[in-house]
Write a structure and sequence with these properties.
mainly alpha; 6 helices; 75% helix; elongated; transmembrane helix; transmembrane
């Protein structure tokens, strides 16, 4: 059986999607805690805190969407669709890390898992299948 058809790979993908949903729910319900993944300091003024909390909610909705898109591609799409969805999700994680890097910290909290998602996507695309 080719790696791209692996049942274990589908379980890994489900875990990835669930992680995104969990990050999203955390960002909406606990914005101060979610901010620690970026290693940013919480704002001190009330107005700034309201703004950051709103931005964290936007981030949370984005992460929930990414998890839902991965679930949908996994259950209703093709392996290729799921693979490209994971590649796109890994690019979001890489971008988040790049933004943190410009602030001098927190980038490895994102760059650490981005390659794993990209590899899972590549496996689904058949990059490592034997010819």
């Amino acid at each position: 059986m080719p790696l791209s058809h692996s049942v274990v790979l589908r379980l890994v993908v489900t875990a990835i999607a669930t992680t995104f949903v969990g990050f999203g729910v955390n960002a909406i319900l606990r914005p101060d805690h979610a901010l620690t993944f970026f290693e940013f300091q919480p704002p001190t003024s009330v107005v700034d805190k309201q703004m950051v909390d709103s931005l964290m909610a936007i981030y949370g909705v984005r992460d929930i969407f990414m998890g839902a898109a991965i679930y949908a591609a996994s259950y209703f799409g093709t392996r290729s669709t799921l693979g490209w969805t994971l590649i796109a999700a890994s690019s979001v994680a890489f971008a988040d890390g790049s933004i943190c890097w410009t602030h001098g910290q927190g980038h490895w909290n994102h760059w650490g898992y981005a390659p794993m998602i990209a590899v899972a996507g590549s496996l689904l695309l058949g990059v490592f299948d034997r010819v």
